[in-house]
Amino acid sequence: QVQFVESGGGLVQPGGSLRLSCVVSGFTVPLYVIGWVRQAPGKEREGVSCLSNKDDSTYYTDSVKGRFTISRDNAKNTVYLQMNSLKPEDTGVYYCAADPLWGSVQNMCVRTNKWGYWGKGALVTVSA
Q1: Within 10 Å of residue 113's Cβ, how many Cβ atoms?
Q2: CA-CA distance, 27 to 22, in Å (whole number)?
Q3: What's the pLDDT tens digit per position in 6-54?
Q4: 97 phi-psi bin (left φ>0, alpha ψ -120 to 50, beta other)
Q5: CB atoms inside a 10 Å sphere around CB 9
Q6: Burial zone of 28 (CB within 10 Å; 0-12 exposed, 13-18 middle, 19+ buried)
Q7: DSSP-based three-state secondary structure for 111
């Protein structure tokens, strides 16, 4: 059974930091892209940051470049999203998701609506 379990969400003040974790189990696809997809209130889901296990290439949407960092720990089967300098517009549910490799990390990350593996999400609220 494939499982993606997110943790680390919460309430943080603007300018603060959070680190999201995604523990992956049962996912045996050899080549894939994994990432974090955000759904802000009233908006569609958006690929925020993704990573390809083929070559460790990464993608960040423009609004988070320089503030967010995606990484993975293979020994712990865990993917992280370090979020710094958080802004109110970063508020939303953050999903950990993945799909077998079918394109570049950027091409896949902007088309996460096609992905097949999802966690249940972690709520991040940035507010004073």
Answers
A1: 10
A2: 12
A3: 999 999 999 999 999 999 999 999 999 999 999 999 999 999 999 999 9
A4: beta
A5: 17
A6: exposed
A7: coil
Nearby residues of 118 by Cβ (< 8 Å), 6 or more positions away: 4, 95, 96, 97
DSSP states of 55-81: T--EEE-GGGTTTEEEEEEGGGTEEEE
- Contacts by 57-61 with C-beta closer than 8 Å and gap 24+? 57/104, 57/105, 58/105, 59/35, 59/105, 59/106, 59/109, 61/109
Placement of tokens 């079918």 in the chain = 102
Query: Using CA atoms, how far apart are residues 50 and 110, in angstroms rounded to an integer?
Result: 9
* 121 to 27, 31, 41: CA distances (angstroms): 17, 23, 14
Separation of alpha carbons 56 and 32, rounded Å? 10
